[in-house]
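Entry for the shared binder. Reason: the reviewer on the internal report wants the predicted structure included alongside the sequence.
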Amino acid sequence: MGLATVVLSGFILAAAAPWLARWWGRTAGWLLSFLPVALAIYLGLQLPMITEGRPQFARFSWVPALDVGLSLYLDGLSLLFALLITGIGSLIVIYSGGYLAGHPHRHRFYAFMLMFMASMLGLVLADDVIALFVFWELTSLSSYLLIGFDHERPAARAAALQALLVTGLGGLALLAGVLMLGSVAGSFELSTILARGETVRGQPLARPAMLLILVGAFTKSAQVPFHFWLPNAMEAPTPVSAYLHSATMVKAGVYLLARLNPLFAGMEGWSSSVTTIGAATMITGAVLAMMQVDLKRILAYSTVSALGLLTMLLGFGTEAAAAAAMVFLLAHALYKGALFLVAGVVDHETGVREITGLAGLGRVMRMTALAAGLSALAMAGLPPFLGFIGKELVYETTLHVPGGRAAWTTVTMAWSILYVAIAVISGIAPFVGPRIAPASTRHDGPVTLWLGPLVLGALGLAMGVAPGTVAQPLVEPAAAAVAPGSADVSLALWHGVNPGLALSIAGLLGGLAIYTAQGALRPALDGATRLLPWGPARAYEAGLDGLNRAAVAQTRVLQSGYLRYYLLLIVLAAAVTGWYTLLRSGVAGGPLRWEWGDARFHELVLAALIIAAAAWAARSPSRLGAVASLGVTGYGVALIYFIFGAPDLAITQFLVETLTVILFVLAFYHLPRFAVLSHPAARLRDAAVAVAAGGLMTLLVVAAAGSGATRAVSAYFAENSLLLGHGRNVVNVILVDFRALDTLGETVVLAVAGIGVYVLLKLRPPGRGR
């Protein structure tokens, strides 16, 4: 199995998933999970090679002329993300089988979920920035389908559209940024770009590229002020929330920041922008989480807060910060994915998601309560969980940040206090105390529902008890990719009595105090929620409304429903742009070759006849007269083709004109008598547009005739007809080889016109006989 197989197999299974799910029935979740399990095993087998510093490459040519290909790259950072994607993905697929049992559209859900998994794998394994962007957009598209899975609900459709628009806007910024980056680096390979860091950072386009890439990363990872889309995406089914919005998709922006940190870390503005936005998001998410009562929205805002912390750590750029970020990323994916799945089980079995209506569930949902307890303790940062080790590393990082360590430590302490309270509210409170839940809640649900969160919670505990199992194989290579030259990473539950331990204890006690006082704080929090509609979400709604109003206004003008206005706008646009180009280039004001002396008498007579017929067609009081005049102009042009040695064009023109005249006559036969319906001003407007378009074409023909290019083109065809087209008849070779598509188009036009004539000949008005 190669890296390409790792990515493409997910897309192949996604295409077959709806049929396989119908065939396998209730066991579909278990059987479809075999692929992500197999991929996780294969990736796990690469750990020794990656630990030894031997990354894997694979390249497949895509657009050789532009040096663009599907390049894949597996190192410590991409391996960590890929293992999370496949490992958690396998549990999510199993969970989905139980959660969506009986859902009429569950078959397509598997296709969307596997498509997303494959897109995320492609994103983190891509070494080519163009391929990275393609997979980046595929994650947005598949998440749109998953968030709006229950498309009958307007709220789900609105949330899906919001996520797509916000992340899509960031995707456009990312595209512009990576194109700039590739142009200044002279390569679109990420590994090459990173190797040429000094050269790239010295280019003028490097800073705009950095800012655009930051916009793309911030929108994807829900950083302030783009954080509002993530909680609204909780309209999606719980498996989507657990997978996309805690473990994978929202961390795509974090992955991009981590991947490009070695390139931009030395540039002015990178560290300050990333750390400031990250810290603001960290605190904003935690405060907003405390304001919520819906279990999934609490977890969503706490995810926003965690993403802010990861972003802040990457902004520090130190080796310790890189290691802390990787440990916290791993711990967060485990416990937050588990807590989302627990919320889904609670909702599935009780039908209630508000924390005020949930308590004492541990008596009837023991396995779910166990999974929730393990995950909540890890989130709160208690030993011996991996979450405790990660939080200690975060404190140690802030305590040693060059400059402003007191401020960063204070901010982190405030986050930790709120995070502990959120962990207790979301993972412990619903399962302890007096029973508050519907009386019908009597069991845990099927094993498919509690297996996933229990496994993730147990992994967080196991990795905390034996941190050496993840330190060197996973964390150290990933940290080395984020901050090259990182020292050996040593993880342990006990580092002695140190400031990090003291801060962890203080954060735990402060969080418990906040939880205990939440009853007194609730009125103030409820009052603060009234301010939420005036946040960035309001700006999004106003912008979307404005965009829709502008679209409606321009549609009334440009999409009026009248063919004459469409033609008028097309001709006018062509005339304006054409005249502007000619005037700016000086062709219109320069000398033009008007070779009247070569014209013969019959050619001048024919030209005068064409002009007179065209003028009469515009002024004729009769439809038949206008049609006949148009026919005269067409036949006159055909005679010009014939006179100047183009019999093929002449024959085509004769056929087209004959069909057109017959078509018009048959159509006008059924129309009312001719009448002038337009106003004089409209006729003057039309005349001005016609003169502008006709003058443009005349000028182009004269300029082309005097440029000498026609002789070069003629010589080219004469010289290459036999050589390239293998034919001695130059006209035939031009038609069937050099202009094959043009000839095909003319043939199609003639066929369509002939069909139209036949239909009109068969048409008989009511009341008339044959």
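Summary line for the report: The longest strand covers residues 56-63.
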